[in-house]
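Researcher: Sequence recovery benchmark, item below. Answer with residues only.
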């Protein structure tokens, strides 16, 4: 009886191995390569803004030029509020319990004012210039006179 059970287990494991050998290539063919198509062409930044009777939180926002900026706005008061940047023609209503979302793109540095005329509150959005990555040339220390070691000598007083 034990021999029959062992044989059945052996046949079952062989059958599972055969099924795996047939099915595994199908799954590998269905695999998705997320690395090649998911490259970002434009850097993205998301900012949440809360509107209250006292003002915007945060009152000042910073981002870099060339970024796609997603702004999400909500309110904590029952009074009508909004978020508007006239220079960019954007208006988002701020309603308690709901989120309004807008997408902006800034290609120049500068300071942009946002406000809500209903609540008489304001804030600023600073777009900073993105500095390029500096590459440093490396030289061999023995070939450069500028990299010669300095010797410290005590002064006589």
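Model:
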């Amino acid at each position: 009886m034990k021999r029959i059970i062992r044989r059945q287990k052996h046949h079952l494991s062989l059958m599972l191995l055969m099924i795996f050998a047939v099915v595994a290539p199908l799954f590998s063919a269905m695999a998705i390569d997320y690395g090649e198509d998911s490259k970002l062409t434009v850097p993205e930044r998301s900012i949440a803004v809360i509107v209250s009777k006292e003002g915007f939180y945060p009152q000042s926002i910073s981002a870099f030029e060339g970024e796609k900026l997603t702004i999400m706005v909500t309110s904590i008061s029952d009074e009508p509020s909004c978020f508007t940047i006239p220079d960019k023609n954007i208006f988002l209503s701020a309603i308690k319990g709901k989120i309004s979302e807008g997408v902006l793109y800034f290609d120049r540095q500068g300071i942009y004012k946002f406000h809500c005329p209903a609540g008489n509150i304001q804030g600023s959005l600073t777009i900073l210039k993105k500095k390029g990555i500096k590459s440093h040339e490396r030289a061999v220390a023995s070939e450069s006179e500028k990299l010669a070691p300095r010797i410290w000598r005590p002064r006589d007083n």
